[in-house]
Input
Amino acid sequence: MVLSGRDYRKILEIIEVVYSTIPDTGAMFHAFCQELHKFIGIYSAIFVPANPQTGEFLFGRYQIYNNSEGALLAYLARYASQDPFASSGWFKDHPNEVARNTDLMPKLARTEFACDFLMPMASVFYVIAATLRAQGDTVGMLGIHRQKRDANFSSREKAIVNILLPHMARSIHNRELAHDGALLRGPHGVIMIDDSGRVLFVNNAAKEALGNRMVETIPDPGLGPMATFFRNRSRTYRVRTVPISNKKGGKFIVLEPQPSNPMLTGQLDSFRLSGREKEVAALVIHGHSNREVAERLFISEMTVKDHLKSIFGKLEIRRRGELVARVLGFAPRN
Output
């Protein structure tokens, strides 16, 4: 879908709102909805945050724009299982990408969900929705609504919202991490850099993780929904970044050590892997090359490649980074 120059200018204005110094997530969400209403026209919206560890939606902390709490309570009590976004698996399998409810359920108008809930209780009919994910963490669920008398969301409007979603996810994620503060304590490696990229502080855990490598070799999670990992010769670290503040540039880079058990027993037991495949997968997750895996297991590199091909097939993945994310629990399963 090709957007106009005017579309992109307005998108940039909304992104500025998303990353602004508005003090809390709820206020930012309402400002976002107001701008979106002026831009493409929406009737109401809802944001439900999620527990970043489990991905479970925290309905007790919801934010509603221009709709009633009663509709949400009725949804939770009776109608959630009928929601096409939940029943189709869209929320689980398509982070940071909206779909239309009418695409997921073409005969929506004839269903109990539409006739008994959407139109009479929520006063809406057309919905686009998505799960928000940032740096491997589920941030929450966003739903945007229109009434039956309005037009359905167009491909252009879906494209606009899809551009905005990663920024919404990253902004909310930044706010939660900064508010929590726990990520900057404990066993994690912490590196502080200014807006020019100059390193201001490196704690001992980060020095150990880096060894003789430069800070610049740590991959930046960026705006993607998947977790990003940094590996040295003995350990795998999950990478997160947290802005120092919204007013000033610079960020904290946090290196969270992943399970050090070389067999990763708990994580690997849930997959249909042979004993040897578990050994190969564990070593690959910890950053070892095919040659190093072969040397440690006293097998040939060709055998390592054969095992990896089998592992990738069973897990329905294509590359080593996806293996790390899937086994350590940061990638949605199909």
Notes: The chain has a mean pLDDT of 89. The chain has three domains: 5-180, 183-257, 265-327. The domain at 265-327 is CATH 1.10.10.10 (Arc Repressor Mutant, subunit A). The beta strands are 44-49, 63-65, 99-100, 126-134, 137-146, 189-193, 199-202, 228-231, 236-243, 251-257.
